[in-house]
Amino acid sequence: MSNQNNQILKNTNAQILDEFNASIMFDKELYSQDIKGSIAHSQMLCEQGILTKEEQEVIESGLLQVKDEIESGKFEFSLAYEDIHMAVENRLTEIIGEPGKRLHTARSRNDQVATDFRLYVQEKSLSIKEQLKQLVDTFVNVASKHTDTLIPGMTHLQHAQPLNFGYHMLAYANMFKRDFQRFESSYERNNYSPLGSAALAGTPHNINRQSTSDKLGFTAPSAHAMDTVSDRDFALEILFNISTSMMHVSRISEELVTWSSYEFQFVRMSDEYATTSSIMPQKKNPDVPELLRGKTGRVYGNLISLFTVMKGLPLAYNKDTQEDKEGVFDSVRTIEISLKILNEVIKTMIVNVDKMENACKIGHLSATDLADFLVQKQNMPFRTAYYITKDVVEKANSLNKDISELTVEEIRESNDEIKNIDEEIVMYLDLRNSMNARTSIGGTSTKQTENQIEDFKTWLEKN
Q1: Which CATH superfamily, name and number, covers 110-358?
Q2: Which part of the chain is the Argininosuccinate lyase C-terminal domain (predicted)?
Q3: How far apart (Å, rounded) are the C-alpha atoms in residues 220 and 210?
């Protein structure tokens, strides 16, 4: 092979290695956090007498110019600088000269990237938390309009007991409230500054980590330098929190898909969030909730990916952790757009009250009320009442009626042990009465649902 060919091969291999090794093309998303951290670091170095006031001022001015160049699209990201930290520092030095070379005193790229990434995760935890609060508010608003609207409650996808639709909506409000609380607790647990940990063992320079921590909005400096530079628990937590939230998004999406089918017709989604078939103009497909449901698998993959990266890493920093960011960036983008769209879907859906209430007349939803009546009014053992209720259900089936539609005479004919049952039973079997009988805390009665709505409104005001 000629020397020329050898050189071409070397150049090609070098280019491939640069592309493989560099993170600049995705960690450039952290430019704002990187510059924010560098400004705080320079201010602390000045406070400690490591930089002069003039040096600090020119460094800060230069960093703000770099930020402007990035945001205006003038900044050229190049593989030559490997990552966002070196790209910013090199451009800063080009702008201000010698003082730019002093900025990296008393820090390492190890604690710098940990700081940048943690700042990003903390900022996103707050913004996602706010989106979840807005979604809870939407579910509560829908619930408040439907505290008397009947819907069949299901277990195993089989009709079970009558609920009100507002109560059903509050189940999701509770899920997303827990998600809110998860992001909140993760934020508090991870709000500690890595800056000043340096490579893994701290620094001999006379720095003030509390100062940079305060400037960056952290609670305090992290306690252990080696753990800090290798820790990615905060990234795993946001991925887990996003995955759990998206699981809840997927569950309501599944119900929306089901409820909007011809078989159910419980809800109709706004045309803005459904599409027609390319060859069947009569169809209206629930594409948006289907996509929301599908994207859940994507964020699960990002969580498992980072777990796999981290599982075998020795202390302290390892290059493997360069693989920590793309999945987080992707999951953050996914949940941000998913929560925004789901919020609008719920706000704009049309509830078909009549279809829901008619569906409650299928499956003998108030059968349990007969058993409860026999226990409470006839002092009958529950298991005996259970088998008598089965007989009444069979009677209703033979008459092609729902149990709630039976007359007292038809009920009495079902089983000799209840041939003298009180006429009051007819009222107990009424579907709306059945729903409203569930007055225990957390129950589905209209009154209890209204109480839960008030509790949510109080919580929303406080948060």
Answers
A1: Fumarase/aspartase (Central domain) (1.20.200.10)
A2: 365-436
A3: 6
